[in-house]
Amino acid sequence: MSDLTQVEVFWLEKRIENRIRFGRAVEDRMIDRHRRVLSFAPGSIFALVRWTSNDFGTVISRIDILRAVAPGERCSTVPYVKPGGESLLRLSGWPKVERVLQLIDVVEGLGIDPADAAPDHWHHVHNRLSVNETPRAYTKGRHRAWLHRQRFVR
Hints:
The protein is α+β, with helices and mostly antiparallel strands. It has 3 helices and 8 strands, in the order E-E-E-E-E-E-E-E-H-H-H.
């Protein structure tokens, strides 16, 4: 049994898309022209975006930001993720998913890989989704503080 968390990504034009928005896969295996399996090391953080549509438009939009777990750790079950992961964020509905994607863009705009951002940022991002308010943004200073704290934890 592998220590890695495996995520099946799938694409069927104009119908279904499961994709990784960010994260560092340590393995990438092609199953066929529509499916791949990406594997993540324990402790790594990644975002899985899923949407499904029919003839009338998008019917499901979801985003999960997860931390890959080590064997024996508790985890949440998430479709297409084996064995599952520690859920940092799970939202449904296009307006919320779109807002999280924008907040991911903000982190990337700072020159920070979202996979390296503090897990607590992702865990609490659902509190910052109001389109009318300016979100309490992740900043380079917050990121430096997170990295500094991690030196003492390890």
